[in-house]
């Protein structure tokens, strides 16, 4: 059996999993719209008919959105993880900085419903001053040659392009 080319990468594998789960998601969506919405709608009409304390109730249309919101949350989590992986390199770290990375990690942990303060704590004032002084030391070295990415420049043999 031939391997599918997309199976060789993490994003390709993720696409294959998403495609395979599409049928299951449709089944759950149908249960949501046909079973859950119908039973909630019937309960609503039952309450209107037999509960004497309800007056002036507007017309409503029951729409079950449980599965669609879960699917959207799952997709957002996947995109957030991909973004975290894509920005985990020295060039992007120089752009977003440690504070930006900390914020990204905090949002990822919050989406996973983890205790954000235990996993990614806020920096103390000493850490913030140390990180600021480290950044200022890198910028104030006039004899150090850097390339376009801000990394230490090396010899011409190491150029990729």
Shape: elongated
Biggest sheet details: none
Tell me how many strands there are.
0
The low-confidence runs, each spanning 5 or more residues with pLDDT under 50, are: 136-142, 156-161
Strand content: under 5%
Total number of helices: 5
Keywords:
161 residues; 64% helix; 5 helices
Commentary on this structure:
It is a single chain. The chain is an all-alpha fold. The protein has a domain at about 1-65. The chain has helices at about 10-50, 65-85, 90-110, 115-120, 125-140. It is built from 5 helices and no strands. Helices cover about 65% and strands about 0% of the residues. The model is unreliable at about 135-140 and about 155-160 (pLDDT under 50).
In short:
With 161 residues, this protein is mostly helical. The chain has helices spanning 10-50, 66-86, 90-111, 116-119, 125-139.
Give the topology, please.
Elements (H helix, E strand, L loop, with lengths): L9 H41 L15 H21 L3 H22 L4 H4 L5 H15 L22
Helix pairs in contact: 1-2, 2-3
